[in-house]
Amino acid sequence: VVEGFKGNRELNGDEKKTVELYLDLNYEMIDDFLVKQNKQRLMVRLSRAICSRGWIIAHYQPYIKNGIYVPYCMPWDARYSAHEFSGYDGLQWASHRTWRNGSDLKKEYPDAPVKDDSALLEVVTFLDKEFQEVWVDNVKVTPQPRQGEQIVGQLIDYKGRHNLGYVPVVIQASPSGPGFEGKDAIKHEGESA
User: Fold this and answer.
1) Which of 112, 133, 146, 178 has the most neighbouring CB atoms within 10 Å?
2) What value does the CA radius of gyration of the chain take, rounded to a whole number of Å?
């Protein structure tokens, strides 16, 4: 159920339905994208993350590609993620480490240092308020546009700069942990039940 305001009045029933429909379609499109990547659906992955890791972390950066809205969302494993918050300025940067095979990397990053198509290579994605960088085996790589592809909106350019003004990563601790504020609170923050 959606609650909210438009100006100084509460949303009416039709407006609430519009927002709910948008959110439902957004989730469906994210699920379609994840399934095409041979990944589990979003809510399954987020539920597993809350129960096993205590943290939800995802790179979320919607854009428009060839006139079609793409709600890009890739959940990250908290074990291989790092980030920094800074008081009122919020999230300063986030990074994620994973491993991918060489043939998949070459399709997206032609300049990736791939010697063996079947070898697993370490991939580190780093995002801050201005840049997105991808490193493959300690070599910075750049994505290449596909032939005829037109991408508009708040996306990265091919030098790694984006125009968002914020870090496009969502980070949230599990809401089911103990929630105490003692001297060891940071150590136990995000623990699941």
Assistant:
1) 112
2) 19
Tell me the average pLDDT across 113-131. Answer: 88
Q: Cα–Cα distance between 185 and 74 in angstroms, integer? A: 28
In the chain, what is the straight-line distance between the N-terminal and C-terminal CA atoms, in Å? 26
Please check the confidence at residue 190 and state whether its pLDDT lies above 90.
Answer: no
Neighbours of 165 (CB within 10 A): 8
What confidence tens digit (pLDDT) does each residue in 102-121 have?
888 888 888 888 887 778 89
Predicted local confidence at residue 125, as pLDDT:
92
CA 33 vs CA 72, 83, 126, 154: distances in Å: 8, 25, 22, 19
Give the contacts of 44 (CB within 8 A, at least 6 positions apart): none
Token readout for 147 is: 């032939």
DSSP-assigned letter for residue 4:
-
- Tell me which long-range contacts 63-70 makes (C-beta under 8 A, separation of at least 24): 63/151, 63/152, 63/153, 63/154, 63/155, 64/151, 64/152, 64/153, 65/149, 65/150, 65/151, 66/149, 66/150, 66/151, 67/150, 69/29, 70/29, 70/33
Which residue, among 193, 166, 192, 187, has the nearest Cα to 56 in the 3D structure? 192
